[in-house]
Amino acid sequence: MAKHIFVTGGVVSSLGKGLTSASIGMLLEQRGLRVRLQKFDPYINVDPGTMSPFQHGEVYVLDDGGETDLDLGHYERFTNAPLSRDCNFTTGKIYQSVIQKERKGEYLGKTVQVIPHVTDEIKGAIKKLVANDVDVVITEIGGTVGDIEGLPFLEAIRQFALDIGKANVLYIHLTLIPYLKAAGEMKTKPTQHSVERLRQIGIQPDILICRTEREISKDDIAKIALFCNVESRAVIEERDKEFSIYEVPVSLVDHDLDQIIVDKLQLKANPLDISAWREMLLKMKNPAHEVTVGVVGKYIRHNDAYKSIYESLDHAGIAEDARVVVRKIEAEEIEREGAERVLSGLDGVLVPGGFDYRGSSGKIDAIRYARERLVPFFGICLGLQCAVIEFARNVVYLTDANSTEFDRNTPHPVVVMLDEQFSVTDKGGTMRLGSYPCVMTEGSLAHQAYDATTAEERHRHRYEFNPQYRSQFEAHGLVVTGISPNGKLVEIVELRDHPWFLAVQCHPEFKSKPTKAHPLFQSFIHACVARHEGKKKVDGQPGYVVTDEAVAVS
Ligand code: GLN
Questions:
Q1: H helices within 412-541, ranges in order?
Q2: Staple partner for 51: which of 14, 56, 204, 317, CB 3.0–4.6 Å?
Q3: What is the pLDDT of residue 546?
Q4: What is the mean pLDDT of the segment spanning 151-180?
């Protein structure tokens, strides 16, 4: 029988519940347990797919096409647990299902209510992850205790322990212990209040994880334990990590969290072995190289809008023994200041996915700069589409070439809507979503990077490279090196006579892990390091003027 861990949060949002849940999953996996992870989000959108990245950050895409919360990205990067649409439920998705059942008459004339019908639906969602090959299901409840919209979820997880027995359920509450400068003290009161709120609902936390900037004294731990009715060894400090989020699981081990969970749930577990993870951290801390990569996007101001891209660059850095410094560049800044000014000194340029016209001309200028200056360039999704537009306009001389997403009446529609999209009217969940295979050309950069001629990657788009222009582009040097198995959809393009210029229609950033960098990201960072080291060599030779061109030819 699977055991259940419920992770809630209190006092403030953004405490890192997702990271902590992922870390718990990783530690239990390293102890030989088979885990599944799941997140509940109390907002009413059915999924985050229709929400602006300015509001919600990145939309994380799964193999099955589920558009989910970005915390699922942490789950995948930290663990090997398989994820599906059933791993992310919002209030909207729960209610959608309840209302569908009501319309079908499945409630047999009853008045449909939050308790028991909505709470039953939530409990059903938790049970979807239970299977014979699962030891522990970790369910994270989004939001903060005390939020009105989170109440049905808390009520459901309270009932859950009653249904399957408290011995099979563990409640972990994440909270904040702020330091008040004026008083020169850590404050435990907000935590006491937050736990009080939980207990009013009927949930007594078994473990408290206390987020803090400073060390929590033994006295404060004892005080928290007493007031919150939690064993003092189960009051765990989780201090801010200055270096990397990948330190979180290690610091939790230092406070015995894995053992406390194993004890409390009476799990049969192996001794912990996180040596590979520790090695990865060590490598990360002592890199031989440093490169600077510019990420040029529209949603740069939101820290989490390109979360998986930033993580994948870090992973590639670990694999290539390099610290990757990311320069976050708003595409519109390039439109104002010019590519030369904004991009000089970079070792690589990456243009990630995006939507809508705004910022596109800045992205196109950035790509032109990378192409002409022989700076490694990696385009992802909209990044590929902008690379195609740039090439059309500036190399093939197709004046005003564009994507029909940006200009419906362009004389040269080099990027067009996918056929299947013409009949689509709803916005939610209707893009080309999820995992699709791609066949690569032998000898291409992509083939070399993957060391394979086929790969499966996740997608999220409505537009594609217009195949009518393929031969014209190829004659000028932009070649198609990855294509769908039926030969219809262009998945990868590469530029000949450039050190590293590759763009993909898929989102490889959703399949990179700290212990296993994605091959395309790794190959890109390899090229950035080569460029950087080349620059150093040229720098060292007297009389050399270091321009971007001189470096590139070195
Ligand atoms: N807006 C483009 C499309 O829908 C690109 C999407 C993306 O970058 N995810 O095809």
A1: 445-450, 470-476, 519-540
A2: 56
A3: 47
A4: 97
Identify the residue whose tokens are 């790509």: 367
Positive or negative CA dihedral for 77, 529, 279, 237? negative
Taking residue 534's Cβ as centre, other Cβ atoms within 10 Å add up to: 17
The predicted structure's pLDDT at residue 130: 96
Distance CA(518)–CA(350), nearest Å, equals 15
CA 462 – ligand 1 centroid, Å: 6
First to last CA, the chain: 62
Tens of pLDDT, residues 200-232: 999 999 999 999 999 999 999 999 999 999 999
Q: What pairs with residue 458 in β-bridges?
A: 435
Ligand 1 mean position to 279 CA, how many Å? 37
Q: Is the peptide bond before 376 cis (omega within 30 degrees of 0)?
A: no
Helix then strand then coil, % of the chain, to nearest 5 = 45, 20, 35
Q: How many residues does the chain have?
A: 554
Please answer whether residues 73 and 308 qualify as being in contact, where contact means their C-beta atoms are separated by less than 8 angstroms.
yes
> Taking the mean position of all CA atoms in its chain, how far away is CA 473?
33
Please write the tens of the pLDDT for every residue from 96-120.
999 999 999 999 999 999 999 999 9
Catalytic residue among 140, 238, 464, 509: 509
Nearest CA to ligand 1 atom 5: 382
Please state the rounded mean pLDDT for residues 495-501: 95
- For residues 427-433, average pLDDT: 92
Q: What pLDDT is recorded for position 551?
A: 47
pLDDT above 50 (res 545): no
Question: Looking at ligand 1, which residue's alpha carbon is closest to its atom 1?
Answer: 355
Q: Which of 87, 381, 438, 528 is catalytic?
A: 381
Report yes or no: 440 and 450 within 8 Å, Cβ to Cβ.
yes
pTM for the full predicted model: 0.94
Q: Of the residues 463, 466, 507, which should be mutated to test ligand 1's pocket, given the most ligand atoms within 8 Å of the CB?
A: 463
- Using a 10 angstrom Cβ sphere, with 0-12 exposed, 13-18 middle and 19 or more buried, the burial of residue 553 is exposed
Residue from 6, 491, 448, 372 nearest 201 by CA: 6
- Whether pLDDT at 540 is above 80: no
Question: Exposure of 92 by Cβ count < 10 A (0-12 exposed, 13-18 middle, 19+ buried)?
Answer: middle
Q: DSSP assignment, residue 353? A: -
Exposure on the CB side of residue 539, measured as CA atoms within 13 A: 7
Residue 538: predicted pLDDT: 59
Average pLDDT over residues 420-426: 89
Instruction: Give the 3-state secondary structure of residue 255.
Output: coil
In terms of Cβ atoms closer than 10 Å to its own Cβ (0-12, 13-18, 19+), residue 267 is: middle
**Angle, CA 431 vertex, CA 429 and CA 432 arms, to 5°:** 120
- 280-317 per-position pLDDT tens digit: 999 999 999 999 999 999 988 888 899 999 999 999 99
33, pLDDT greater than 60: yes
